[in-house]
Amino acid sequence: MHFQSSDEQQQLADSLGRLLAHHYGFEQRRAIAASAAGWSEAAWRRIAGLGVTAIGIPESFGGLDGGAVDRLPAMQAFGRALLLEPFLASSVLAACAVREGATDAMKDALLPALASGELRLGWAHDEAEAGHGQEPRHIATRARRVGGRWHLHGLKSLVLHAGAAQRFVVSARIDGGVDADADADAESTVALFLVTPGSAGLALREFRLVDDTPAGELALDGAVGEALGDVADGGRARAAIDAALSAGSAAVCADMVGTMETAFALTTAYVNTRKQFGRPIGEYQALRHRIAEMAVSLEMARSMAIAAAAAADAPGAAASAIDLARAKLAIGRHARTLCQAAIQSHGGIGMTEDYAVGHCLRRIHVLDHLFGDVEAQAARLARLHHQDQGDML
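Given the sequence above, the corresponding C-alpha cells read:
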C-alpha cells in the first residue's frame, strides 16, 4: 500500500527525526531508562514544542486536527528511537477518549492542555481478567454513587506511564454484569471517570516492562472519580473506549514499523562492516538471503501500518475492525521475524545490554502484547469472520 505524506506531515516528521537524532540517541535513551522516572520531561517538552502532542485534537481546542494517518510518521519516528516518553498513553489513548467521550466542559478543560503537552493523562482500562487485550470490552471495575460522588472499586493491571500521569482516565461499570457483549442493554452501564493520583482509596504500584517502558497497576478502593461524560450515555462511553483502543492499535503498529527499521538498519550496517576470513559477512549468500527476507518483512509491515491507520480513522466502516486486527497480526509476526533475524545476524553481541538491536526485540515483544498479541488478533479475526458469515445468512 502506498502512502504519500502531505507537506505538513513530512515537515513535522523531518523536524521530529532531527530532534530525536540529536537528543535521543541510544546512549541517551539508556540514561533515561536508568533514571528514577524512566522517561525525560525535557524530551517530552521538546516533542510537545514541535506540536506532535496536538495531532488528533480538534483545532478549536488548540490542536492540529487529524487522526491515526496523520500520526503515522511521528509514531514511526518514535519507534526508531525506542521512545520512552508517555505519548501513547496520554496523546493517543487518553486524548482520544476525551475527544470522543467527554462533555463540552471537560473538553474545554482538558484538550487545550493535552494539545500543548502541559497535561499528561494516564489510560486505565486494561484488566487482568481481560487477558491483556484478548477481551478489550471486559470491564469489572465498578463505580457507585455515594453522597453525590462517584466511588470506584477495581484493579487496572497495565497502566502505561502511570507515574507520569497527572490524572487518570478510568473505565468503569455503573451497574449490570461484567461482560458488555452479553446484553445489548448493558452498554448503558459503562462510563469513563477522571481520578487524581494520590487520592484516598487509590494505590499505585509502579514497575517497568521488559523494554524499560514505565507502567503501573492501579488499585481503586473507593477512590473518588469525576465523570468524564454523561454517565447515562453508555453508548457514547463505549464508542470512546473503542475509538481509543483502535487509535492505540494503529499507533502501536506504526511504532513497531519504526522499531523494525532500526533493527534492519543496524543489521545491514553490521553485516557490511563485520569481516570474517577477510571479507564482510554480508557477502555470504546465507546472510544475503536473510537480509532480503528482512527487507520483505519490513515492506509488508509498512503497508499494513498504513492500512491500520486508515482503519482506525474510519471506525464506522464495515471492514475497519477486520483490517485493524489483520494489520496488527501481520505486523506482529513480521516484526518478531525481523528482529529475531537481526539478533541472529549479530551473534552474541545482539543480546547484550550495550547494543540496541536486542532492545528492538524487547520493544516488539511489549508492543505485540498491547491491545492483543498475534494469537489474540487471530482469534478476533475468526470471531469477526463468523459474525460476517452469520449476517450473510
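Residues 176-186 have pLDDT under 50 and may be disordered. Try to locate this feature in the C-alpha cell string yourself.
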